[in-house]
User: Fold this.
Amino acid sequence: MNSEPDAADQYRSFPDLIRFPSGESQALVYSLWSRSALMLSALGQHLLQGCTTFATLDEHAARLCRELSALPLQIDSVRRQLADLAAAGLLVARTELLDVVRRSGRADEPAAQIAAVGIPTCDRPRSLGACLTGHMEAARRHERSTQFVVIDDSVTARAENRRLLDALAQDSGVPIWHGGPEDKRRFAETLARQAGAPPDLALFALGIDRDDWPIATGGSRNALLLHTAGELLLQVDDDTLCPPLPAPDFSTEIALSAAFDPTESWFFSAAASSPAAGAAAATDLLGLHEQLLGRTIADCLADRAAPDLASTNARFFRRLASGEGRILTTATGVAGDSGMGSCVSLLLLDGASRTRLHRTEADYRSALHRRRWLRAVTRPTVTDGGYCMALNLGLDNRRLLPPFLPFQRNQDGVFGAALALCCGGFTGFLPWLTPHDPPEERAFSHPEVAWRRVAQLQTGQLMQVLLGSFPQGPGHSTAERRLERLGQWLEEIASGDQRDFAEYLRLHAWNARARTASQLEAQLRRYGGQPEYWADDTRRALSAVVEALTAPHAELPSDLCEKWGPDQALTRFQGLVQRYGSLLRVWPSLVAAAKALRARGVHLPARCGTKH
Assistant:
């Protein structure tokens, strides 16, 4: 039993109740809500369920009595019951949680700098030139010794890209590397020999032998991971620009969060159509990432005020207590094209962002159609969720990170899911905006297209759904072992009868769509179906999701069905799941082999500005 709670401290309960016993071990003991609730009176359960935000016990007691319509003289009684719950460890003090954060571990090496900026590209020489020039100018301005690596899947523009890179390298003296499909193939064969791995898996990892897969961006991202293994890396999309913009309502206070996507600030004004306007040229983008990337949470908070813990949960602190609390990836927000394939996030907005979206119906229609928004966190935010959008992504590549799904879109979402499952680290979101300006206009040509997209599951999304169904079981001590176990499980579910695999997909695709339907229904109730134009759209989206629950082939990736038809889509997706599982198993040996080759001067890309 704990001592009498501090009257000045703030307390809250968690869905998974936490008990922090005293003692030198500082171990965390977690008691399930259901078990604890059996030992509590109905009033005690109600009090716990009502303490979901941090407040003093006096503040909790006064608020709960108002909600219960209790007499003022009953406040003292409620206050005593809350104190008993706190003393039993069922209400957790904010100071105890802060102690857990600070004791979670400090880094055992000095802070590192980002050594490389990597850019995957495909047939967009003008965008590549603008992206690379902006980052090179920023590196020069801030006296950065940064190398630049371009992995090029171009079909028609590869020679033009190489001429551009050669000229930039010769004029600037900055190290620039360029690798195309032939370079990736040669490196994959060398890598497989070094690792003792099947050559076909090394080729698969790098997106070679595409077998008509239309998109191989994930393979290029894997090439960047292998080329820079052992260093901090920033990956940027070739249609993004540098320098970044500060997010609206910018703050330097750090927040810790258990949200999957902690982005809370969305804007839909004209500024979203001109992402480069007013850019702060003096901003050191790499330095922004380095404030969090590769550091432990305890290190990040060492010289800062106490973080905001309002959005944390018990899972967050379990993970923090079981590992070193290191931030393995960092990401900025986006200004311009949102990079999102579905408008469901707009329908589910809350708070000030929702108010801005619905300033007028015209604003709402424009945002829905054009997909050009500003979205970011408003302060540095560290989360244990698996959300990942790689258009401006910092990676602590000194640690073992999972591979990206080599083919199709949303490979970064699959990476984020595998990272959360296997690598035990955290993601840092930065209150800055990366201008994103694709050369082609991306818009939903008709509203009904938007509602169908809400109901669809494409290849990367369905792979995320599968990873979310992984039965994790007892913890394993290393990222290598966890990657191996996840890979074996994917191989298992994809190696059996095709009908069994399709049934497994059907069950989990149904669950994913049912969750989306529940969210849309809850949003309609919450806002009483207002405004009407939004409610009409939300009902259309909900109808599309409900129809998809029982539609033919609803368990299959929609992008593969559109390209190859249902039968071949199932065969291809089953093969992709199996091969990605095999890649997860051998990935640690491929990373180790890449480090060994690099030590011998063997690189995937070629140095630009030299004869070739």
Summary: The CA atoms of residues 163 and 608 lie 9 Å apart.
